[in-house]
Design a protein that fits this description.
Length: 376
């Protein structure tokens, strides 16, 4: 079994779905667009690798070998682009913009030279692959160096953010860093095998790690709101659950009708399948819209509850004139909304510092010293 090609095909589908999930959630978000571009780059690369691995003709394998380097040139720079945007919370500093401009220029250069005949020397049968490419001239080796350097730098920046971040951000970076590291180690097998370095299980199973990266990233997205795309995921899953039976059942029924009625009138089974799908498709759309509306209402219920609570809180604040009454309200609402036993308000300005606890023990109990040190 050609796992080199199969794993690449699986990766292409998985990263394409991940890109679709993200971009369908919010096309205006800079972070989402960059992440989708990064995922599409992996899709382009892995799809060409799959064609290269499955190719039974030398010319097709050679063409795919050149084309896959378009994605291979874009992956490292879009990876760094995503890391910069994520670390900078949607904005990129001036110095990093210049770095990105330089990296995109280098990527464009390698995309252009990847079409030169000398970039890939030849293709030949190796490791059970019908026509596997051989590295070409010096430019090819420089493209590999560019890829590895960019990925190492991006992983380093991601690791430093993981080490120094806290709370939800720390959990986000934990999943993002380790899944990316795992995926790139697996993807590295595609370069190793081209250079004749055959390490089991990296060859032939390494590229499956990229699919695992997609799964872990998708988990981080839903569990820790790495990218808030729960509604997009629910729409896609709902669509697949409804339309997969609608499209597949008539197909299999048409197939079996043709087999059972071999002496019948032409391909009557396929005519029946098309007719049945034409009838079921509108009803499927009706059930999809109805079911999706209920799912989205549940997903948004908690958010709407918080918004209603904040609206009520702001309405009460309008009628408060004293600082102590305001603090009492803030503490009470915080305990109720967050479902905690204790809450404090710590007020500081340049002239004085005042600690206020819950209404019953105002000014008597101090905020824990460790918390004050953290706030300072």
């Amino acid at each position: 079994m050609n796992h080199f090609a199969i794993s690449a095909a699986v990766t292409a589908v998985a990263t394409l779905l991940l890109a679709f999930f993200v971009i369908s959630r919010n096309t205006k978000s800079y972070l989402y667009r960059v992440f989708a571009l990064y995922s599409f780059s992996i899709t382009l690369w892995s799809a060409c690798v799959a064609v290269h691995g499955f190719a039974r003709e030398e010319l097709l394998a050679l063409v795919a070998a050149h084309l896959l380097h378009i994605g291979a040139s874009l992956i490292p720079v879009t990876f760094i682009h995503f890391v910069f945007v994520f670390i900078d919370h949607g904005e990129i500093s001036g110095a990093r913009k210049k770095v990105l401009q330089g990296l995109y220029a280098i990527a464009l250069f390698f995309i252009v030279v990847s079409f030169f005949p000398a970039f890939v020397s030849t293709v030949a049968p190796r490791y059970g692959i019908p026509f596997l490419m051989y590295p070409g001239n010096l430019l090819y080796h420089l493209s590999v160096f560019y890829f590895c350097t960019c990925v190492a730098y991006g992983l380093y920046k991601m690791f430093m953010e993981y080490v120094y971040s806290k709370g939800i951000r720390h959990n986000q970076m934990k999943y993002l860093f380790w899944s990316s590291l795992f995926g790139y180690i697996g993807g590295l097998s595609n370069y190793l095998i081209i250079y004749g370095i055959n390490i089991f299980p990296l060859n032939p199973y390494g590229t499956y790690a990229v699919t695992i990266y997609v799964i872990i990233t998708a988990y981080a997205i839903t569990r820790y709101h790495l990218l808030d795309i729960r509604i997009a995921i629910s729409r896609t899953v709902t669509f697949l659950l409804i339309y997969m039976p609608i499209l597949s059942i008539p197909f299999f029924m048409g197939y079996w009708i043709n087999r059972l009625w071999k002496g019948g009138i032409g391909n009557i089974g396929w005519f029946f399948a098309i007719l049945l799908e034409a009838i079921l498709a509108p009803s499927g759309l009706y059930f999809y819209l109805k079911l999706q509306k209920k799912i989205e209402r549940r997903l948004k219920a908690k958010k709407l509850e918080y918004l209603k609570t904040m609206e009520d809180f702001l309405e009460e604040v309008k009628h408060i004139r004293g600082l102590n009454d305001l603090v009492d309200l803030v503490v009470a609402e915080t305990k109720r909304i967050m479902d905690v036993e204790k809450a404090w308000v710590y007020l500081v300005n340049s002239k004085w510092t005042e600690q206020i606890t819950n209404p019953e023990n105002k000014f008597e109990k101090e905020i824990p010293g460790a918390l004050i040190n953290h706030l300072r």
